[in-house]
């Protein structure tokens, strides 16, 4: 493969990882105050958000859906359980850790949604609801494409397993 020289690199503003990071930071700033007003972290909110759409989920599924490393998810489970927002579900397979929202967890979820929905609608109005739907579809397609590429590319570096991993 030919070596790319600096002058041939795309401009900083056209770097996909940078553009995605900037968009993530901007949208996080829009919604983070609603989350923090309820003494939640963004990762904790992602867990509540995922559980709100399911009766119960196992730890592996939650880690994947919420993009949270398993050690962090364990701490999040502990914190949300102590606050009475999630509860463990009995499971026949002892290797699976299943959790669900409690009534308090669902009530908190609904409260945050009600508070943040006007901002979401404002964003959809400013950006365009159709464009926002298209963007979400494209981002999902991009993720799926990159994951597929990773499945066949033996030369790609492995993903970091833990923060500061070895």
Automatic annotation (TrEMBL):
GO terms for molecular function: DNA binding; DNA-binding transcription factor activity. Coiled coil: none annotated. InterPro entries: HpaR/FarR, HTH_MarR-typ, MarR/SlyA-like, WH-like_DNA-bd_sf, WH_DNA-bd_sf. One of its GO terms (biological process) is response to stress. Residues 13-144 form the HTH marR-type domain. Pfam families: MarR_2 (PF12802). This is MarR family transcriptional regulator. The lineage of its organism: Bacteria, Pseudomonadati, Pseudomonadota, Alphaproteobacteria, Rhodobacterales.
